């Protein structure tokens, strides 16, 4: 029987702001939040949520906001 004692959990969040020196008025924001759980010694799960904004996206069909989630399973050895 496997017993989960003290789980190793982590939460990391980042916010980045970029402004353009060559294109007047263009700026971007990137935000990420990642929750990770080390299940057993070499196996971990993580969930990432991200949001990106560009004030002047390239191309007329490209949206200014991009967002999503990423679920991953990792094994290290």
Structural notes for this entry:
By secondary structure, this protein is an all-beta fold. It is 0% helix and 64% strand. It is built from no helices and four strands. It has strands at 8-19, 27-40, 43-54, 65-75. A four-stranded antiparallel sheet has the order 1-2-3-4, with no helix packed on it. A hairpin with a 2-residue loop joins strand 2 (27-40) and strand 3 (43-54). The chain is elongated. It starts with 7 loop residues before the first strand and ends with a strand. The mean pLDDT is 89.
Question: Topology, please?
Answer:
Layout: E1 8-19, E2 27-40, E3 43-54, E4 65-75
User: SSE order in H/E notation?
Assistant: EEEE
Overall geometric form = elongated
Which strand-content bin applies to the residues? over 45%
Query: What is the residue-averaged pLDDT?
Result: 89
Helix vs. strand class: mainly beta
Distance between the termini: 23 Å
Provide the descriptors you would attach to this structure in a database record.
single chain, 77 residues, 4-stranded antiparallel β-sheet, 4 strands
Task: Characterize this entry briefly.
This protein is mainly β and 77 residues long. It has no helices and 4 strands. It is elongated and about 55 Å long.
